[in-house]
Amino acid sequence: MTTVLHHFINGQRVSGANGRAGDVFNPATGEVARQVPLAGAAEVAGAVAAAEAAFPSWSRTPPIQRARLMFRYKELIEKHMDEIAELVSSEHGKTIDDAKGSITRGLEVVEFACGIPHLLKGEFTEQVGTNVDSYTMRQPVGVMAGITPFNFPAMIPLWMFPLAIACGNTFVLKPSERDPSCPLRLAELLHEAGCPDGVINVVNGDKEAVDALLGDPRVAGVSFVGSTPIAEYVYATAAANGKRAQALGGAKNHMVVMPDADLDQAADALMGAGYGSAGERCMAVSVVVAVGGAAQPLIEKLAPRVSALKIGPYTDPDTEMGPVITKQALERIEGLVDSGVEQGADLVVDGRGVTLQGYENGYFMGGCLFDNVTTDMDIYKEEIFGPVLSVVRAPDYQSALDVVVANEYGNGAAIFTRDGDAARDFASRANIGMIGVNVPIPVPVAYYSFGGWKRSMFGHSNTHGMDGVRFYTRLKTVTARWPSGIREGADFSIPTMK
Known about the structure:
Layout: E1 3-4, E2 7-9, E3 12-14, E4 21-26, E5 31-37, H1 41-59, H2 63-79, H3 81-92, H4 96-113, H5 116-119, E6 124-129, E7 132-140, E8 143-147, H6 155-166, E9 170-174, H7 181-192, E10 200-202, H8 207-215, E11 219-225, H9 228-240, E12 244-248, E13 253-257, H10 263-275, E14 285-291, H11 295-307, H12 327-342, E15 346-349, E16 368-371, H13 378-381, E17 388-394, H14 397-406, E18 409-410, E19 412-416, H15 420-429, E20 434-437, E21 453-454, E22 457-458, H16 465-471, E23 473-481
Parallel strand pairs: 1-5, 8-9, 8-11, 9-10, 11-12, 13-14, 13-19, 14-17, 16-17, 19-20
Antiparallel strand pairs: 2-3, 4-5, 6-7, 7-23, 12-22, 15-16, 18-21
Helix pairs in contact: 1-8, 2-4, 2-7, 3-4, 3-7, 4-6, 10-11
């Protein structure tokens, strides 16, 4: 029998009440593994009500006690690492090692949240005026919501709710309905660590649940990660309803390879950055800008590596790349590869049509490598979100930089070079939120912020780091003077400090 999942509201597993449900597939077999209830407005309202009821008490809980919760939570995630990774891989398809790596990157934010007493400290200035002091304090916002994508069912939720909760907020998480088991388990583990009822809630669902969260006046802020069109919609709708919002959208991440680069190092980096997790990463490198004489030898190094990729299910320890998430995703990726061929790019390695014995119905695709891609082609312009790497040739450094600057996305970009001047110039002038120098996937550590520029980010606050603390708190400034017993009468001019 197919396992039927649930919501997690007010510390309890809650069955779907409206009869709507969706299938959760094992992408390696194409079989339905579980069914997930799809919440309607009433169920979302129940989760928000639970979070609202829990907020007054939780927001008054001393930060040191909230930090201790995070320490206990960290231990539980580490203890259950194998179980959580299995949930990720069985519903997403990525390898176990990749799943564990993503959980670890999420765990880093939990570790960062353990320092919340220090992170919430305000500023104090004595004697800003005669016998007048000023100080600031950071206070929680209220009920916060997170809407997270399928590609990182552990890492991205962990980038959101631990820090929000450590700051004193309560939280409603709406994970992707394609792989919801891991986020549900993460919420249950936080509850097991001692989180009070109602502080963390999970509602599964589709657009109906998203719209219910965006329209609920009790939700004070929304954090989102997904495609650019939906990010723009979430940001605009949240703002129209008076909420603060951070909405991270799509990407078209470039890696510039200079002629002086170590090409073996660059090729190895591109294999992991372009084909790891079947390219289903918002920080995946999908475009190589090969400068001058670097192009042909780089292609020659990449082609045999791409052809030799070990494709298989996550249960095979030798697998290097698993399936994509759904049949629809596979068809879309293959359609974009078709368009690249039709529009004149050279398909050096063709990964279409992969069939594995025993997994004939799985959503597998081999790695694709294109050469001589131009910026007017669909495979360049669209976010493919699959194992497709496009090589754009540029005659010189400035032309390569122009390609990066002109692209509508600005999530991540990297340069591989031995030239410190070129690296420094690229880091300064590329209009991109995260830059790597000889690092292909420049995802910052937890105490720096993650976020892109241009159409990769809507809102001014990035995730985690101090930007995350600022997003999940309100800053209050207090100006205080204690009575001296001397009355000076009313003053009708604007106050100034003397």
